[in-house]
Structure formats: C-alpha cells, structure tokens
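Hey, I'm writing a tutorial for new members on how sequence and structure tokens pair up, and I'd like a real worked example in the thread rather than a made-up one. If someone can provide the structure for the chain below, I'll link this post from the tutorial.
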Amino acid sequence: MASLTGEASARLDALKAVTVKHARLQEADQALSLVLEAHADATHVLLCGPGGVGTSTVLKGVTARFTREETHRDVLPLVLLEPIPSATGPSVRLDDSRQILTALKGHILVKEIFVHVAHLMAAPTASRSRQGLTDWLDRREAAEQALVRSQVNAVLMDAGHRLMQGSGRYTTDEPLAWLKSLTNRTHVLHVLAGPYALFPFRNTRGPLVRRGRDRHCPRYHVEEQEERQACVAAVTYLLDRMPLTGDLDALLKRWRWCAEGRVGCIGMVKTWLVDAVAATLAQGGTS
C-alpha cells in the first residue's frame, strides 16, 4: 500500500491550505459582510449554493477578518459552529447551545457562566421530552448570557441545513421560531450556510420568513465569457500551486474539462486536484 513520506505530506498539506480568492468567493464574502454589519431586525440569513462552491470558505474567511479587525479585546464579533452530523431535529438546537458555550468559555466574562454549567456540558445531550428539560433550559440560558456578555454579533452555522433534519414530527416552523426567540433575547443574528436543501426554510409562515435574508453563492457558468475568464483564472491559480512539475499551458488547454467536470465549483476542482496530487506523490511521482 502506497503511503506519503513526511516531505510529501507537508507538500500536500500546503496545497490543501491554499484558498483561491476568486470572484464568486469575494462576492459572497461582501454580501455576507454587509448583512452582518446592518442586519436590522433579521433573525437569520441563508447562504446557499451547490456543494463545493465555497460557502464554508466564506464563513471561515468572514469570521477570521471580523475577529482580526475587532478593536475591543473583550468583544468576540462572530462565532462559527457546525451541527454534529448525528444530531437531528431538536437535538441540533440543543447541541447549538453546547457549542456556543464551548466556543466562548475562554472569554473572561463567560468563565463564571461556564463554571456553573460545566456539569451539564459533560452530561449527554438532554431532550425536552424527557427528564432533562430543566438541564436543557439551563444550558440554553447560559448560552444566551454568554453571547450577550461576549457582545457576539452573529453565530455562523456551517451545514445549516441540518437544523431542519428530523424524524418528520418537526416542521421548519420550529427551528425558525427558535432562531427568532434567540435573536429577540440576545440580538444575535444566525447565519445558516449550506446547499440548496436550506430552501425549505422559505416555505413556511410569513411572519417567520419575513425575519430572514437570502444570499446566493452560485457556481460559475462557463458559457458566459466573464464568468468563464474568472473560472479559468481560479483554476490557473490552483494549478500554479501544485507541488509538482508540469506543463501549465498544456493543462490549461483542458480548462473546460475541469470547469464542466466540476460544474463550475472551484471547491470541487480543488478537491479533484488534491486527490490527483496525493496519488502522484504516493507513487513517488514528481510531475
């Protein structure tokens, strides 16, 4: 079985760490940044796009920039979370409180709160339908206090479509009502990023939908000249940073294969190239 040497692993890790600052990513970054700075009465934002288009990258980039630019050391502007894959229905929202507390526990104004609920954090996830109701409420209240004390402006949730998953007993009204309640009590916006499976959030009651905002993160459509040029530029940027020798011009002649084979999603192109580089390095190849 082929394996990577230490040097090859380091070269592959460097490629994995590359972020392509292409047009689609920058557009989504700017749109999300604007709504974070002036969300008014919104309770949630849906950042949707096809898989591999870069919604996760946008969340990470916005979080890093807002945190870096914050001038008050006691303020944590954004918190980035991801629902656990095994949780569905209300369990996702229970886990949200746990993750918020874990993310903020190091804040000087949150340490006291965390001490009081540390025993709940170590316990299994409670359920509102069983004896753990009081524990769940205590943890939710602690999370709300932590958000307020840290002066968090928004909670960014990657793979936000998991918030809607359940056994069929729960409608999309419930998570939206939960987000509305959380925002009313804390003035903290929730951003849910993920695939188009997020759209069912729009098929519910008007009063809940009105408090939401939509931001689209589309793929490149290579039949359009301007988008084609931006897509090829992003592919070129990735090819130029592969830790292998190669004929860049010859590879770029196949740009359409890369673009259409990965339906115009740069994240999918990067995954494809990382896999190819890993296979080449594992076999001792250099080009």
